[in-house]
Amino acid sequence: MEVDSRTSQLIHIGQVFTPGSPVNTQDLFAGRIDQLNRIISAVTQKGYHAILFGERGVGKTSLANVLLAVVQQSFVVGKVNCDVGDTFSSIWRKALRDITYSREVPGVGFTPEASQQVVSVADSLPH
């Protein structure tokens, strides 16, 4: 089946113009630099945290995506989407599940060779 040029153009427009999708790059993130700077100011102060909340469709995910790209070179970052059934504990478990570290595991046998194991921070939390 052959696609005509108008259909092809509509498909291309649908791939380029995505107002319902979150912004992922700072280049496409316009007009919210003050909010971005306020969050960065909060999370870089000792003992401070930032929480993004608001009505549906106002750009929370876009702000979080751009923030992640900006700060992940300097900080260990976990990004979590909260659900209705989440608790304080479940939110932290989600956040720490994506943060991993590598540890050395001793080998077994007469000539043991140690290996590296990647572990989630959430795995080290008590139940």
Give an account of the 3D structure.
This protein is an alpha+beta fold and 127 residues long. The protein has 2 domains: 20-77, no CATH class; 82-127, no CATH class. It is 35% helix and 9% strand. It is built from 4 helices and 2 strands; from the N terminus they run H-H-H-H-E-E. It has a two-stranded antiparallel sheet. The longest helix is centred in the first third of the chain and has 12 residues, at 5-16. The radius of gyration is 21 Å and the shape is extended.
Short key terms for the protein model shown above:
127 residues; alpha+beta; two-stranded antiparallel ribbon; 2 strands
**Which regions contain 5 or more consecutive residues with pLDDT less than 50?**
none
Please indicate the count of domains.
Answer: 2
Return the average pLDDT rounded to an integer: 78
Find the structural class using helix and strand composition. alpha+beta
Helix tally equals: 4
Largest sheet: 2 strands, antiparallel
**Residue share in helix:** 25-40%
Assembly type = single chain
| End-to-end distance | 56 Å
The shape is extended
Cα Rg:
21 Å
